[in-house]
Amino acid sequence: MQIAVVLFDRFTALDAVGPYETLGRLPDAETVFVAERAGPVRTDTGNLALTADRTLADVPAPDIVVVPGGPGQNSQMENETLLDWLRTADGTSTWTTSVCTGSLLLAAAGLLEGRRATSHWLALDFLARFGAEATGERVVTDGKYVTAAGVSSGIDMGLTLLGRIAGDDHARAVQLLTEYDPQPPYDAGSPDKAPAHLVEEFRSASRFILT
Amino acid sequence: MQIAVVLFDRFTALDAVGPYETLGRLPDAETVFVAERAGPVRTDTGNLALTADRTLADVPAPDIVVVPGGPGQNSQMENETLLDWLRTADGTSTWTTSVCTGSLLLAAAGLLEGRRATSHWLALDFLARFGAEATGERVVTDGKYVTAAGVSSGIDMGLTLLGRIAGDDHARAVQLLTEYDPQPPYDAGSPDKAPAHLVEEFRSASRFILT
């Protein structure tokens, strides 16, 4: 079983590392980080690079595709090299997945039309414009498409899919080893729970970005 | 404000990326990934490398030190280059922190003697042998030392310290943007909650590792 995690300039690190650290613990699976060009790929902060060990062309038919999001997703929405690769890989994949605004890339490739899907809470309206039924749920499975909400939700997505493929006991073992027993010091992780002024501030700012 | 995240061969990626993605969003802070040698550093799975942009020697006096853990920590316990750097950096740091078995490296450097601290649940006994008061809590603050439990707990640690330094509202904003509203599909993230047979299996296996 081969899992391909797609990197691009200014992706969000945790979007990619959450599924890698959970789903990547599938027995007998090989996780490969891929990008248009092999080598270090910088994250959105500019302070970190993850290495793409292989090019997209090197890995044409992974069993599982994982597409992270991040501010850099905007610049990829018309990158036909990436979108073509997504369509081709999806043609033979068992699971096609995304975290955060990675779902916008799946949608731009035409893969989510008419499907239930999710994205970062600030990107749900944008996702709907591509014909997806955008839900605010944290992890959404529609057929072989599994999409997750913002950034940290890739951990929940990874464990969910891990359980589906390798069984509940294996997923519980990975949850235990990664000590995923969340105790956030605040309860502000969704627009329903965060202070209204923060939600409004980010909604206003995002109008200039997601157009 | 400078945040140094220390990398070493076979660290666990999420240990480092959790604090980077939360604490690293401190206003006016620069996060720097450092290692003995600059360049790509492989994680415990071998399938991913993060780039250390600077050497330890390049970054002698960060304001915040973050030490991740992972299987590779064992090979660093007598690495005097790293331990000396930790002691020196700690001499001027405002906060010295760890995730997972990273606390064993702080302890090996002599920094946790007589202090309350935590670690991965499988490493708590080992931590106590260094004279730390090992607790099973998820995030432990003792003076300027902030230690977190296994792997994913670095997210909670990062938000906790972020709130302490930059205020609750800023930490809530980062929680909202990273959509950290955890909904694990299982409730097996700690030895108190996971099925007993899994806990026992890992305890037995770890006896050969942590000695």
From TrEMBL, chains A, B:
It holds the Pfam family DJ-1_PfpI. GO terms for biological process: regulation of DNA-templated transcription. Keywords: Glutamine amidotransferase, Transferase. Residues 2-162 form the DJ-1/PfpI domain. InterPro entries: Class_I_gatase-like (IPR029062), DJ-1/PfpI (IPR002818), INH-QAR (IPR052158). It comes from the Bacteria. GO terms for molecular function: transferase activity. The keyword Lyase does not apply. PANTHER family: ARAC-FAMILY TRANSCRIPTIONAL REGULATOR (PTHR43130), DJ-1_PFPI DOMAIN-CONTAINING PROTEIN (PTHR43130:SF2). This is Glutamine amidotransferase.
